[in-house]
């Protein structure tokens, strides 16, 4: 495994930092930080409106990011890439812009019980507001989706299936392409939305191979700046979607009588965007592409296996999720005996080990797992086996303090 | 082991919490959530002659909040309601001789402030 850590300046600031919370947000490589700085020192001006050179160059950087992202996820057309604030905003845009316009009372949206609140609450609001029914696909004892339960739903009513590609608690990789093929083979014509927040940063992604209609993800979890996320949707769907915000930039003509909207993606990008963040996200995509997503997959799988092995050797550690690196990523939830997750996190923090403790914005899943909360470790390319060794030692310390 | 936060008193009460359970026929019954972590604490108590005659709690919280509440139940049993109302949080925290970070002060005081709130109403 190569040492990518050297590209991430935060580890120069804190040489002993063991950062195991990349599912919450990733660290940023020097290349991304430079791109943000360069935006302000080299390009800063507003995009899409200047006739002067500086604005034209800024527009080129901004639109190049869109093209890079389209290529990164296998989209045919950069105009299918809509910049939003984050993953939650992308899903809300589909809920407000597409579902509200195209669905009616009694229609069904299916999600799973392992979803993050961001892919749950927007649909639950549609239930309250317009009588949409929300169906929860259960998970089985192997932490896999029982997606064939979709077959029980009335085909004419089921309009959308919205699933996370990778669970932010269990780390399970849901077989999206297989689910999509199964849906088509069973004449289920519902649209498929994929929440890629935990997958796009770690897995090579191709929207055509997945067979999805919408893909949403966040920039800050894939080495990019915070404040920018992406909604990809098929062009024909963007055309039948209403904008959520209206005002500047998203129009084609405004008279006192009427405003006509622009085409996608402009239609959905009212106001001045997060310019420097979009430039930074382009640099993040360059960085990931240069390493290669296949390399990232391979290295992370090795690290995940190593972490799972180490954790499994501690008798009182209870892992919630698959115990081998097959069909899962390095998002690992566990508990240490009866010790509360926050107490575990507290002791680890003293050793500069950053883990997440709590319900991970998936309270319904916690209910299903009968857990009040878990400790969650999540890995990325800058982590090493030494980081895992320190984690295991730290858990040893937790056990010592709590004498269990 | 002399941990700055997880002192003997906290570990002992975490492992063997006192007055753990729900009091039947309680006149005080309150459930409060720690907004930081979502942990819940339910306190039930009986008041007789302006005194806390019986008190019990259940919690799914961390070691700090659980142990602190356990210590508090021992402290306030048979204590006059008025006397408890006068008790300052700083004084209560001193019992533990522990170093609480700002986040963990909230854990340690979850039961204390919940009981205060319950007795006020």
TrEMBL record, chain A:
PROSITE patterns: AA_TRANSFER_CLASS_5 (PS00595). Its cofactor is pyridoxal 5'-phosphate. Keywords: Pyridoxal phosphate, Transferase. Transmembrane segments: none annotated. Its EC number is 2.8.1.7. SUPFAM superfamilies: PLP-dependent transferases (SSF53383). One of its GO terms (biological process) is cysteine metabolic process. It is an enzyme of class 2 (transferase). InterPro entries: Aminotrans_V_dom, Aminotrans_V_PyrdxlP_BS, Cys_dSase_SufS, PyrdxlP-dep_Trfase, PyrdxlP-dep_Trfase_major, PyrdxlP-dep_Trfase_small. Residues 18-391 form the Aminotransferase class V domain. GO terms for molecular function: cysteine desulfurase activity; pyridoxal phosphate binding. It catalyses: (sulfur carrier)-H + L-cysteine = (sulfur carrier)-SH + L-alanine. Catalyzes the removal of elemental sulfur and selenium atoms from L-cysteine, L-cystine, L-selenocysteine, and L-selenocystine to produce L-alanine. Belongs to the class-V pyridoxal-phosphate-dependent aminotransferase family. Csd subfamily. This is Cysteine desulfurase.
From TrEMBL, chain B:
GO terms for biological process: iron-sulfur cluster assembly. One of its GO terms (molecular function) is iron-sulfur cluster binding. InterPro entries: NIF_FeS_clus_asmbl_NifU_N. This is NIF system FeS cluster assembly NifU N-terminal domain-containing protein. PANTHER family: IRON-SULFUR CLUSTER ASSEMBLY ENZYME NIFU HOMOLOG. It comes from Candidatus Amesbacteria bacterium RIFOXYB1_FULL_44_23. Signal peptide: none annotated. It comes from the Bacteria. Residues 6-120 form the NIF system FeS cluster assembly NifU N-terminal domain.
């Amino acid at each position: 495994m190569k040492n990518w850590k050297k590209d991430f300046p935060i580890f120069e600031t804190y040489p002993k930092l063991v950062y195991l919370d990349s599912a919450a947000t990733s660290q940023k490589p020097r290349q991304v930080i430079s791109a943000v700085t360069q935006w302000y020192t080299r390009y800063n001006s507003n995009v899409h409106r200047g006739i002067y050179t500086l604005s034209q160059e800024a527009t080129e950087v901004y639109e190049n990011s869109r093209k890079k992202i389209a290529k990164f996820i296998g989209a045919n057309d950069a105009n299918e890439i809509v910049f939003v604030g984050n993953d939650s905003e992308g899903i809300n845009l589909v809920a407000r812009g597409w579902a509200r316009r195209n669905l009616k009372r009694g229609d069904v949206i299916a999600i799973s019980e392992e979803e993050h609140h961001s892919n749950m609450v927007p649909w639950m609001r549609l239930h309250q507001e317009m009588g949409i029914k929300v169906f929860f696909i259960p998970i089985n004892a192997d932490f896999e989706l029982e997606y064939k339960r979709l077959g029980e739903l009335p085909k004419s009513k089921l309009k959308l299936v919205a699933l996370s590609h990778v669970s932010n608690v269990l780390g399970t990789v849901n077989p999206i392409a297989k689910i999509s093929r199964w849906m088509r083979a069973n004449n289920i014509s519902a649209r498929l939305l994929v929440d890629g927040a935990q997958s796009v940063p770690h897995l090579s992604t191709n929207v055509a191979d997945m067979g999805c209609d919408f893909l949403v993800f966040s920039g800050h979890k894939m080495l990019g700046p915070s404040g920018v996320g992406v909604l990809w949707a098929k062009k024909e769907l963007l055309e039948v979607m209403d904008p959520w915000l209206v005002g500047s930039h998203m129009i084609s003509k405004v008279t006192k009588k009427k405003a006509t909207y622009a085409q996608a993606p402009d239609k959905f990008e009212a106001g001045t965007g997060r310019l420097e963040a979009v430039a930074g996200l382009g640099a993040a995509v360059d960085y990931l592409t240069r390493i290669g997503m296949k390399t990232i997959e391979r290295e992370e799988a090795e690290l995940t296996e190593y972490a799972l092995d180490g954790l499994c050797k501690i008798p009182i550690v209870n892992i919630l999720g698959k115990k081998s690196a097959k069909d899962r990523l390095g998002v690992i939830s566990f508990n240490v005996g009866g010790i509360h997750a926050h107490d575990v996190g507290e002791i680890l923090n003293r050793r500069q080990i950053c883990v997440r403790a709590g319900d991970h914005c998936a309270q319904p899943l916690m209910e299903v797992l009968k857990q009040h909360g878990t400790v969650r470790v999540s890995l990325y390319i800058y982590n090493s086996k030494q980081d895992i060794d320190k984690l295991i030692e730290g858990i040893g310390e937790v056990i010592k303090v709590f004498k269990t | 082991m002399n941990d700055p936060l997880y002192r003997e008193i906290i570990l002992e009460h975490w492992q063997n919490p006192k007055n753990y359970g729900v009091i039947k026929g309680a006149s005080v019954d309150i459930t409060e959530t720690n907004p930081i972590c979502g942990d819940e604490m339910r306190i039930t108590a009986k008041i007789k002659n302006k005194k806390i005659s019986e008190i019990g709690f259940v919690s799914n919280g961390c070691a700090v909040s659980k142990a602190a509440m356990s210590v508090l139940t021992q402290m306030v049993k048979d204590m006059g309601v008025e006397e408890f109302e006068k008790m300052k949080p700083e004084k209560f925290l001193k019992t533990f001789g522990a170093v609480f970070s700002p986040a963990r002060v909230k854990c340690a005081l979850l039961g204390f402030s919940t009981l205060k709130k319950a007795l006020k109403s």
